[in-house]
Each structure stands twice: as structure tokens, then as C-alpha cells.
Design brief:
Elements (H helix, E strand, L loop, with lengths): L1 H18 L11 H15 L7 H18 L1
Length: 71
């Protein structure tokens, strides 16, 4: 699903402009990503439209997977 991957890439790019490239890798507490993913999942289920919760949810899950794969 190219549109979905494009939205996810935009989320990464926008975050990098604000926080710096790969700044998310500096996190020592993966619970931050779990909590954020949970908040965005709830927002998706409640159909909130105030931001792109789908991309934010995918981003957090992708970060969790990266930490799982890379220790």
C-alpha cells in the first residue's frame, strides 16, 4: 500500500525536522513508544481527526519493531 507507506515516510520526515534525524533511536525507554502507540490506537478507534493518528500509530509500532530487531 504505497499511500500508507508514503504517509508513514512523511511522519518520519516531519518528526525529523522538529526533533532531528534518528533522534527517536536515543530513547532508552521503549515504554514511551508503547504508551504513545496505545494513545494513538485509542484515537483511531474513537475516529479523532485532530492529527494523523494512523501514521503516528504505525510509526510507534515500527520503532518498537526496530528496537526488537536491533536490541
Amino acid at each position: 500500500p504505497t499511500g500508507v507507506l508514503t504517509a508513514l515516510a512523511k511522519h518520519y520526515t516531519d518528526a525529523a525536522k522538529v526533533h532531528g534525524v534518528d533522534n527517536w533511536k536515543k530513547s532508552l525507554d521503549i515504554n514511551t513508544f508503547k504508551q504513545s502507540a496505545y494513545r494513538h490506537l485509542i484515537a483511531v478507534l474513537e475516529d479523532k481527526q485532530d492529527e494523523d493518528h494512523y501514521s503516528a500509530l504505525m510509526w510507534n509500532v515500527a520503532c518498537l519493531k526496530w528496537f526488537k530487531l536491533n536490541g
